[in-house]
Design a protein that fits this description.
The protein has helices at 42-51, 66-69, 72-79, 87-92, 96-102, 108-115, 171-176, 185-194, 215-234, 242-252, 260-279, and strands at 2-7, 10-14, 19-24, 29-33, 55-60, 82-86, 124-126, 132-135, 138-144, 153-156, 161-163, 202-205, 209-211, 283-288, 291-296. By secondary structure, it is an alpha/beta fold. It folds into two domains: 2-225, Metallo-beta-lactamase, Chain A (4-Layer Sandwich); 235-296, no CATH class. The strands form three sheets. A seven-stranded mixed sheet has the order 1-2-3-4-5-6-7. A six-stranded mixed sheet has the order 8-9-10-11-12-13, with no helix packed on it. A two-stranded antiparallel sheet has the order 14-15. Helix 1 (42-51) links the parallel strand 4 (29-33) and strand 5. The longest helix has 20 residues, at 215-234.
Length: 297
Amino acid sequence: MKILHVEGDTFAIDTGMLLIPFYKINKNDIILLDSGWKRGEKEGILNLLDRENFNVKAIIISHSHIDHIGNASVIKKKYNSIIAMTSIEAEIVSSNISLKVFYGDYSLSKVTDHFGHMVTDTDIRISPSDNSLSLFGVTFDIIHTPGHSPGHIVIKTPDNVAYLGDALISYEIMEGFKMPYAFILKHDIESKLKLYHLNAKKYILAHKGIHIDIKDLITDNIYFYKNRADMILEVIEGLMTFEDILKAATKKLEIQIKTVEKYMVIKRMLRSYIEYLIETNKIEVVMDHGFMKYTRL
């Protein structure tokens, strides 16, 4: 792991998988933007913080996915850090039961085992009307970009550096991912369109990269997601159950599913595309002999 200087007092920890930005209040006190994976990254991140004699005064969470909030509770306990995130994201990780509501297909014991470390006490809940957040004399701009996660935010540091979280994905991710995730794809695309109006000196993607201009990346992101939706639409013929579409879509996209965990992940991904096709009036839900099925309009 290494530290990258982005602009002014804005830096980023490069974990290999992620860029985790932070803002230096002074030589030792910092504010983290997200906290990274627990599995495979916790020790490296904690060792880096110790090596640099950093004191994590606060963590602003862009969204409560496992790779962004994974170490928040550990860091909070070690440094007595303040945790800030949007109200809806805070509610998702408020308990194992709340996580079970969000990851509905998983049993409670599975949620507890796999996601339980994400449970975090939130000190500051950012409301949908908040467009800034001040911590320890430092003010960050907050841009609400729901879609990838219900309460996702973009965070802009005082150096005019925008941390995009997962509001955009890199070209590398587009090349490697067959079906990128969005909680509500329609909202995610609307938030990507919103980013055309975001003015910053530099932009940080969590997965991953530092950019000076993101307009082409926004356009290509939107095309990529819509293209994936169109590819799924193409496999729907006649009346099909969700499982029928899953089987046809994974075959078309050459996605292999060999474990229950991979099945759960792909199922969540596919559902957002099916819901997007419903919301954009491309398909509809019908009942056929007691079974819910989907058909093109």
